[in-house]
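Predict both folds.
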Amino acid sequence: MSKEYIQKSASFMISFFIIVILAIFLSLFVIHQQEFEKKESKEEKNEVEEKEYQISYQEENSQYEIFKKGDSVTVKVEEQVVCIQAPCNPITYQHAIRFEKNKKEVLSFLEDLFSKTTDTHITITTNQLDDAQQRILEAIIYNDETYLEEPKKELYFTLQSARIDCPTVLLKVYRDNTYEYIYGSTRDGNLVSKEGTYAYPVSSFLEDSRNEEPNEIGPYRLTFASGEEKYLYDNTSDIQKFLEKIQIQLDTCSTVLENS
């Protein structure tokens, strides 16, 4: 084996090992850089999550300060009491939110409040919130999860024609300015209905005389939630104006529909 061949082989081996060592160092550098970036990103995320947000809310004589830090929500309350000899010191206390079922809904509501601002302390008022948001806020400040439940509709009265000889449609009117019009049923007994809203002042015919004079057309039967009944006639009440506004015809027989 020649000396020249040995020298070339040695040179090749040295170059090969240098390349391998450089590749190892480069791989270690890339891995280290990735780990560093992951750690930095995680720290930044944690810093954002752990930032404390504060919401101020005033309700009559009570001042509420809501603090959110990560998933932790705390409420500080300052309640100005009425006393015989003023001034008197307000009552202060605080509570932490520990809801069982609706914690995510509460956190989402609070996060939405800060989604359009860079401030970490804001003041809110009732007129900024819709009904659902108001229920969430009340659940927070009173520390009562039941405020998040959908309010039950309160029946005001029902209306039904009493002047046609058949089972008739039924109009159920609720106190929240909504109604349910039940116009039929399926063959297996399920009611078929549609819902709507009204803005008509129903007191205009609710306050009509209980002793209205009958007319040849016949009456409508109005039944209050208590079960009390009265009869209304076209010639002495404004009931037709209400029905025209919501486009409901009560002098209609209820229909039986095929099962869907």
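Second protein follows, with its predicted structure tokens after the sequence.
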Amino acid sequence: MDRLPYASISLRIPQDLLIKVRHLVETGLCRDNSSAIRSLIEGGLLLHDYKNSIQDPDIVRKLGEEWESKMNEKEIFGWAKNLKDQQITAVKMVLEMEEDSRRR
């Protein structure tokens, strides 16, 4: 399937979010702010599509077990290096959501 051409938009976001976006660029995870924002949007849309299954305790347990099995330092870095940008964003978002839920 062909992608539609890019469109320019004006976007207002809080400074703290912009700092996080720029961090992705500074650490080399994304090439520039636009690619970082596109990646985050794609990850957010992916997460939105899977939000019901993520709430499923069996799937959460399975993800947790998979994560625990990869906690060996060499394995986890190898696993992380094989993730696509969208997958990295989705993993970060899931971890941030878990952190937020634990703080409540």
